[in-house]
Amino acid sequence: MATPADFNGYTPTWCPGCGNFGIGVTLRAALAQLGFSPSSVFVSFGIGCSGNMNDFLNAYASHGLHGRALPVAIGMKLANHMMKTIVVAGDGDFYGEGGNHFMHGARGNHDITVIVHDNRVYGLTTGQAAPTARKGYKSKSTPGGIIETEIDSMSLAITQGATFVAQAFAGNTIHMVEIMKAALSHKGFSLVNVLQPCVTFNKINTYQYYVKNAYKLEDVHDKANINKALLKAQEVHAEKFPLGVIYQIEKPAFHEQLTQLEESTLVSHQNSSYILDELLADFR
């Protein structure tokens, strides 16, 4: 049985105190507690500080282009739908450059767990404002303050067809492990938006800020009620951040509706290696 340590890669090089450490620890713990091994998981990483986890997590993994982590994961899931498939990306990468893929991945209900590091800035490129930053936020790319309102990522996921939407806080790893386990166990498109303080470039949305403004959802919250879920998701505009599973329903995943995947995976087809060799020959 795998342990969290089995998922350890190289030593992380994130800034001391970065919320990414909490996400990395909880993802490894959740995978181990659910019985996964490094060879049973595929992770598609975006670009940015979150994408550096590609080196820090021991699993089958790939870097997508900026904003393209999800289509890489969809390709992997369709090739081998038996493999647990995960996307790890930043809020700028996934909601900004990858926003189009985000919407279509949700409406397809692809069986992929998406973990978004939401720190409201582009941390790797030194603190430009991300699409999740609040209106008026000042950064080196927006010295006069942002004109647009922040993107409501969870409402967008719910309305476009995602079947699991949750939010976690990187400062509460025990709670986050349970949320990640629920997301990884869900069949269909599952989004976990993680409130992840950037201690270097974002001096507004700090650990103290989220301790003050975030709260755990009560057990009586009706997560199958789309209207109630949307009301909770939209609290972001009032600087309130519900933590927990905001929305969850059951419906067929994308791959379950493809007749060509009923008997076996694409990668296990008898002539799959031959076809791949032919395709690769075109690029030699």
UniProtKB/TrEMBL annotation:
List residues of the Thiamine pyrophosphate enzyme TPP-binding domain: 48-194
Which key words are in the record? Iron, Iron-sulfur, Magnesium, Metal-binding, Oxidoreductase, Thiamine pyrophosphate
On whether RNA-binding is a keyword of this UniProt record, the answer is no
Picking any one GO molecular function of the record gives: metal ion binding
Q: Which GO terms describe its biological process?
A: cellular respiration
Provide the cofactor list for this protein: [4Fe-4S] cluster; thiamine diphosphate; Mg(2+)
Q: What is the protein's given name? A: 2-oxoacid ferredoxin oxidoreductase
NCBIfam families, per database record: PorB_KorB
Domain spans labelled Pyruvate ferredoxin oxidoreductase beta subunit C-terminal = 198-262
